[in-house]
Amino acid sequence: MRIALVQQHATSDKAENLARGLKAVREAARQGAKLVCFAELAFEPFYPQRPSDGGHRELAEPIPGPITDALCALAEKLGVVIVPNLYECAGEDSFDTSPIIDADGRMLGLSRMNHIPDYEAFHEKTYYTPGDLDAPVFSTAVGRIGVAICYDRHYPEMMRALALGGADLVLVPQAGAIDEWPEGVFEAEMRVAAFQNGYFVALCNRVGKEEILEFAGESFVCDPGGNVIARAAKSKDDILICDIDLDQVASSHARKLFLPDRRPELYAGWLSIDETPERAAEPEPDAIVSLRVLTEETLRPILKLSKQMPPGQEKMVAPNAVSIAQAHFNEKAWFRGIYADDTPVGFVMLYDDPDTPQYFLWRLMIAGPQQGKGYGRKAMERLIEYVRGRPGATELKASYMPMPGGPWPFYQSLGFEPTGEMEGDEVVIRLRL
Question: What CATH architecture applies to the domain 289-432?
Answer without folding.
Answer: 3-Layer(aba) Sandwich (3.40)
